[in-house]
Amino acid sequence: MNAWICTTCGTQFSPSDSAPERCPICEDERQYIGRGGQKWTTLELMKADGYKNSYYEHEPNLIGIETVPEFAIGQNAKLIRTSEGNVLWDCISYIDDVTVDLIRGLGGIKFISISHPHFYSSMVEWAERFDARIYLHARDKQWVMRPSDRIEFWDRPQFSLTSEVTLVHVGGHFAGSTVLHWKTGADGRGVLLTGDTVSVSADPRWVSFMYSFPNRIPLSERAIDRIISRLEPLSFDRLYGTQFDSVVESDAKGAVMRSADRYIRALNRQDDR
Ligand SMILES: [Zn+2]
Ligand SMILES: [Zn+2]
């Protein structure tokens, strides 16, 4: 039996003899089926194809991890090192022995938490290799393609993993979309890790919010209002999105507030722009 991985979205499914017929995450209107149709791989095949993970130190105690060459939608995970155990924020499909050895050397992984289903990837594989627990928002339970008793679903506005790390439910892109607030990041000024729940724009003084990024479907004003009401009480100066270089280095809270205003103005504009 193989735990098959969808090559378009990177989601690993429960082990089965033959590849699944369909990928519900790619069939959803927020994603897409790859141009060549539905295709599958496995961790063994990825290893044989020469995939590797690479690492990037964003700031002390925050390390980005991504797969090269780029796989699926180019997901990126982030390891936050804390005195109460390390947190893996978001996840990627590829994991190998070198990845496990290197991360063990950094203290391993105690908690895995994921912004939304596009980053569920091989989360159960990662949890098993590191003997970690996975924390997902309950409103996205239907998108788990490999159930496991390592997964815990939480369902409230906030959920603290450690004294430094709190998950905050904001919704929007997915009903259960979550961001992670790291109180002691950015030299104590606070960090927000967002996946693509809040996405860093090409101009990194700005962020954006979307229901679907690949299919370019915006969110409603009501969804933006709720996201902002959940972020407003948090103090953070820096924001990390999905990629190594998607970072708002400073005044990130200001950037989020200005960007939400701009987004809502654009939604309500009555002219031809
Ligand atoms: Zn898929
Ligand atoms: Zn997404």
What are its keywords?
six-stranded mixed beta sheet; seven-stranded mixed beta sheet; binds zinc ion; Metallo-beta-lactamase, Chain A; 273 residues; 6 helices; alpha+beta; 25% strand
Give a nutshell description of this structure.
This protein is of the alpha+beta class and 273 residues long. 20% of the residues lie in helices and 25% in strands.
Description:
There is one protein chain. This protein has a single domain (5-267), classed as Metallo-beta-lactamase, Chain A. Helix 5 (221-231) runs antiparallel to helix 6. The chain has helices spanning 24-27, 43-48, 97-105, 123-130, 221-231, 252-268, and strands spanning 5-6, 40-41, 52-59, 62-68, 76-80, 87-89, 111-113, 133-137, 151-154, 158-160, 165-169, 178-182, 191-193, 199-200, 207-208, 210-212, 217-218, 238-240, 247-248. It starts with a strand and ends in a 5-residue tail after the last helix. A 7-stranded mixed β-sheet has the order 3-4-5-6-7-8-9, with helices on one face. The protein is 20% helix and 25% strand. The chain contains 6 helices and 19 strands. The model has no long low-confidence stretch (mean pLDDT 96). Strand 7, helix 4 (123-130) and strand 8 form a beta-alpha-beta unit. With 273 residues, it is of the alpha+beta class.
The pLDDT mean sits at: 96
Count of DSSP E strands?
Answer: 19
If strands are numbered along the chain, what order do they take across the biggest sheet? Answer: 3-4-5-6-7-8-9
CATH architecture type? 4-Layer Sandwich
What structural class is derived from the secondary structure elements?
A: alpha+beta
Question: How many domains comprise the coordinates?
Answer: 1
**Class, according to the CATH hierarchy?**
Alpha Beta
> Strand content of the residues, in percent?
25-35%
Number of DSSP helices? 6
What low-confidence regions span 5 or more consecutive residues with pLDDT below 50?
none
Shape: globular
- Write the CATH homologous superfamily: Ribonuclease Z/Hydroxyacylglutathione hydrolase-like
Q: How much helicity do the residues have?
A: 10-25%
Round the Cα radius of gyration to an integer and report it: 18 Å
What is the H/E order? EHEHEEEEHEHEEEEEEEEEEHEEH
Listed once per kind, the bound small molecules are:
zinc ion
How is the biggest beta sheet arranged? 7 strands, mixed
Task: Give the CA-CA distance, first to last residue.
Answer: 53 Å
How is the CATH topology named? Metallo-beta-lactamase, Chain A
